Amino acid sequence: MPLDDAQTRLADVREKIARAARIAGREPDDVTLIAISKTYDADAIRPLIAAGQRVFGENRVQEAQAKWPELRAETSGLELHLVGQLQSNKAEEAVALFDAIHSVDRPSLVEALAKAMEKLGKRPLCFVQVNIGDEAQKGGCRVAELPALLAAARSADLPVAGLMCVPPFDAEAAPFFALLAKHARESGLSELSMGMSGDYETAVTIGATHVRVGTALFGERA
Ligand SMILES: *Cc1c(COP(=O)(O)O)cnc(C)c1O
């Protein structure tokens, strides 16, 4: 992607976030845009960094390990978020590499992350991923299991900042965003990771503090 295209796309997404924030009486700066660069190689990511984007997201530990050390060596101040499912045996690698983890979804992972953070002396911000549509075969903890998982995370002293969701693919997202926001409020959590290329403006009007945008910035994935 040429630098011009990266600048145009980034400006467009930022403008839409700002507009949605203003509609909801929020400050545009209260929304963090995470550019989801999964499947794109370092050469495809560089124009977006050159255009000024600093916060990126990946869904696989190994893929991120292959690209980001090099990109981070080139540009300081980059922030990297993990948005994909995490195996407990990769918890230590994830803690070492990422600044935030959006996919905490089960007690065994809470334990593994707490142990890794203790060992490495590094505490990436955590989001508990909620299977907000209670779908079979979907990542995230069941809504009914959320209180117990949050209690486990608190007793393990995990730095949980908020909740994350990927709503059902074939349904209107807004009601699910509203439900996630309600659970966050009731749990005393301030951060909400919700909204992707197709629905990030809606998510911002409903309170998203972190939107995860891939294709609107990078184009369709192969
Ligand atoms: C791929 C991905 C995104 C970005 O999706 P787009 O539709 O490309 O914006 C956001 N969140 C998660 C968890 C993803 O896996």
UniProtKB/TrEMBL annotation:
InterPro entries: Ala_racemase_N (IPR001608), PLP-binding_barrel (IPR029066), PyrdxlP_homeostasis (IPR011078). CDD domains: PLPDE_III_YBL036c_like (cd00635). The modification N6-(pyridoxal phosphate)lysine is found at residue 38. Residues 10-221 form the Alanine racemase N-terminal domain. Keywords: Pyridoxal phosphate. NCBIfam families: YggS family pyridoxal phosphate-dependent enzyme. Belongs to the pyridoxal phosphate-binding protein YggS/PROSC family. PANTHER family: PROLINE SYNTHETASE CO-TRANSCRIBED BACTERIAL HOMOLOG PROTEIN, PYRIDOXAL PHOSPHATE HOMEOSTASIS PROTEIN. Pyridoxal 5'-phosphate (PLP)-binding protein, which is involved in PLP homeostasis. This is Pyridoxal phosphate homeostasis protein. It comes from Sphingomonas agrestis.
